[in-house]
Structure formats: structure tokens, C-alpha cells
Design a protein that fits this description.
Helix 1 crosses helix 2 and helix 1 packs across helix 4. The chain contains eight helices and ten strands. Strands 4-3-5-10-6 form a five-stranded mixed β-sheet, covered by helices on one side. It starts with a helix and ends with a helix. Strand 1 and strand 2 form a beta hairpin. The protein is α+β, with helices and mostly antiparallel strands.
Length: 283
């Protein structure tokens, strides 16, 4: 049994989908399926129930998942301790500005507990760079939101958050229980500066070209709405502040919280960060 095979198993167990797990592992599905089948042969037990309804862990698979995570954590701790001894235990994390997510606090606590001697440097970026410095090479890993240009990056989804329209509290549309993008078609929206990732810009513009004031930070978005009566999108669960409100948008896909890193980077500090983040956001 190899650690690589256990990583394959954990990916399938967390996604409960061979196709998504294969994409996450940057491999095709057939070799992943063969690796899982070989693992089942080694244990002499079925690890996944496969049916037309989907994939589910068997009781044996659930036991292996707990043990595999523990083994992989231990393997990464060994690598981190060696890196620490070599004076290389530093991780630079990029985050979007104004992030107050409780799950991020859990992630910080859990990472510090498991890697107390690792120096974590945090680089906060504004809304013009959703990769938080990854494409520029200034961070090792990013805790951010999708969608954005994923060229050369590995991206793992942590959570999906519904979004809504950010409005003044006295806006006539604020009285509605929900809205569609068509309801906002003739309104001015806040925009990100020219040169911002077009995939990111298009999502936060509701999928189409818009006109309105240019903003770079979350607080600037809120002030643009408060002072100018413009509209925009925000996370439904976020508290917008006095004088503002958020109305659910029924035809927008949720905003995904993701962890991203450069494709092919095998730094054990990053691998451990991704695994701890997955657990923190699941909780």
C-alpha cells in the first residue's frame, strides 16, 4: 500500500465521485478506478458502494478513511519537521481582503496546532486579484473565492455560498423576497478595474457587461451602493452594514470558497494546508 494510493482513496471518499476526484488529482478516471479496485483487492473488502444513485462509502471504507487521513497527516508532519530542521518551514498564504469567515479562524487554529514551528505569512489582496498573488508567484497557497482563471493552478472547493443583490435598504427592490438578474438589468453596478481577471469580473457582474463606479475592496463596494444607489452582488450570509440589505438572487450560481496552489507544487506544507482546510470548512 502506497501513500499515493491512499491519497487517491481519500480524494474519492471526500468527493464521492470518481470523475471529480480524478479532476482534482489531475489524472484520468480509468487509472484512478484501477487504483481503488487494487486497494479493495489488498484489503479483501469493498470500500465504495457504486450504484446508479452515486458512490457511497461502505463501513469498511469509513474506517479506512479515518486511518488514511491519520497516516497522510503523519507523513506530512514528517516532511514538515525535516523542512523545519533544514530551515525551510515557511508558508505564504494569500487571502482576499475583509475575510471574517469563522472557518478561516478554525483553519488557522488547526494549522498552528499541527505545525507550531511553521512560520505562516499572510498576504491580503483586494478584489482585483482573486488568486491572491498565486499567478504572480508571491504566495504559496490562496484561500479565496472562485471562479477565476485557473490556468496553471490546482483548485479544491471547500464550500458553496449563496449570493444576493446588495442594495440600499430604502431601494424599492429591497422589499422583494428574492430577485432575478433581469430585475437588475437597468441598474448601475459597481465594477472592478480594467485588467481584472475577466472570469472573476463576469461572475460578479451577473454574467453581463455593466456600467458603474470602479471599486477595489469590499468596503468600497458597500460605499458605492450606499452613496450612489448602485447595485452589485455579495455573499448572502454577509452582514452588509447599516443602511444596506441583501436580497437573494434566484438565478446566480453560488460563490465557491476554494483553496488554490500552483499545479505540480509538492510542498508538504501546502498539502497539509489543503487537507486541514477541507476539514475546517466541513465543520
Amino acid at each position: 500500500m502506497e501513500l499515493r494510493t491512499l491519497r487517491y482513496f481519500v480524494a474519492v471518499a471526500e468527493d464521492l465521485h470518481f470523475g471529480r476526484a480524478a479532476a482534482r488529482l489531475h489524472m484520468s478516471q480509468p487509472p484512478l478506478s484501477r487504483a481503488i479496485k487494487q486497494l479493495e483487492t489488498e484489503f479483501g473488502a469493498t470500500l465504495f458502494d457504486r450504484s446508479s444513485a452515486g458512490v457511497a462509502l461502505t463501513p469498511v471504507g469509513a474506517v479506512l478513511l479515518d486511518e488514511a487521513r491519520a497516516l497522510l497527516d503523519q507523513a506530512d508532519r514528517v516532511r514538515v519537521r525535516v523542512s523545519t530542521a533544514a530551515g525551510a518551514a515557511t508558508l505564504t498564504v494569500g487571502v482576499l481582503g475583509d475575510s471574517t469567515d469563522p472557518a478561516a479562524a478554525r483553519l488557522a487554529d488547526d494549522y498552528r496546532r499541527l505545525h507550531p514551528r511553521v512560520e505562516v505569512r499572510v498576504r491580503e489582496t483586494d478584489l482585483t486579484d482573486p488568486t491572491c498573488g498565486l499567478h504572480a508567484g508571491s504566495v504559496d497557497v490562496a484561500l479565496t473565492r472562485a471562479p477565476f482563471d485557473e490556468t496553471g493552478l490546482s483548485v479544491h472547493a471547500l464550500r458553496a455560498d449563496p449570493v444576493g443583490a446588495l442594495l440600499r435598504a430604502d431601494d424599492p427592490l429591497a422589499r422583494h423576497g428574492s430577485l432575478s438578474l433581469a430585475d437588475l438589468a437597468d441598474r448601475r453596478w459597481f465594477l472592478f478595474p480594467e485588467g481584472t481577471d475577466p472570469v472573476w469580473q463576469t461572475y460578479w457582474n451577473g454574467g453581463g457587461p455593466r456600467e458603474g463606479p470602479v471599486v477595489r475592496a469590499v468596503q468600497e463596494c458597500r460605499q458605492a451602493v450606499l452613496w450612489n444607489g448602485t447595485v452589485g452582488m455579495t455573499i448572502l450570509a454577509h452582514r452588509p452594514g447599516q443602511g444596506l440589505t441583501v436580497v437573494p438572487l434566484t438565478d446566480m450560481p453560488p460563490s465557491r470558497v476554494v483553496v488554490a496552489w500552483r499545479e505540480g507544487d509538492t510542498n508538504p506544507l501546502i498539502r497539509s494546508f489543503v487537507r486541514i482546510a477541507t476539514t475546517a470548512y466541513r465543520g
